[in-house]
Amino acid sequence: MFSEKPLSSIPSTIPQEFSIPNSPTSSASASPLSSAAHSRTSTITSNSCIRNGLLTSHQSSRQMKIGKYFLERTIGKGSFAVVKLATHCDTHQKVAIKIIDKSRLNPNDHKKLEREIVIMKSLMHPYIIRLYEVMESRNLIYLVTEYAANGELLDLLVREKRLSEAKAKEKFRQLVLAIEYIHSKNIVHRDLKTENLLLDGRGNIKVADFGFANTFAPNKKLQTFCGSPPYAAPELFQCIEYSPEKVDVWSSRIAP
Predict the structure, then answer these.
(1) Is 155 noted as a catalytic residue in this protein?
(2) Does residue 136 surpass a pLDDT of 60?
(3) Which residues bind ATP (predicted)?
(4) How many C-alpha atoms does 83 have within 13 Å on its Cβ side?
(5) Is 98 a known ligand-binding residue?
């Protein structure tokens, strides 16, 4: 359903070291590969990668390949997904690959994921995380996105305690431009918070995680409560219809 190209080189399950952690509400676990299958999938390499010095022979014999990407360390985990840092074999570009276990998705989760993918594909802005590619195997879905090398804005705030006025103004300017663009596409994010504001290698804002995003009609209100309570607008707690643009504006004033 999500595939954009043939996936003959993509394994349908992942080894234990890449497995998705058990959900707190589920006893199901990701199926590890057999030893033979693990050997076949984890030793898929590209001669061009080795020639270009991207991998040593020792590394290439142990590193797992997904499509044209070599997986590296884990940079995030959730109830039904893990996020891996990866490198494109030919361009050497760093990306983040979200690996989603389809067996953990209920029908509502699946619908939300489809919507998130459609929304992310429609967005192209310097301060929004790009979705490069979507791949699918029998058991897993892979979302290949832009990699934000400097992590979350929250981590920066924890490290520095407070930002200078100049730095805070620049971060907020970038966030406002991203929100303005999102709303111009009749899309609402609904979960703006410091954990979902990433920073690229130059420290620029990258709005991420469109799991609660939705489209809206101009001058029409929404009524679904979602998002993170510390950042949510008051009308969401009142269980009344709300202006989609206004709830994002409220959250943006708190997030930075």
Answers:
(1) no
(2) yes
(3) 98
(4) 15
(5) yes
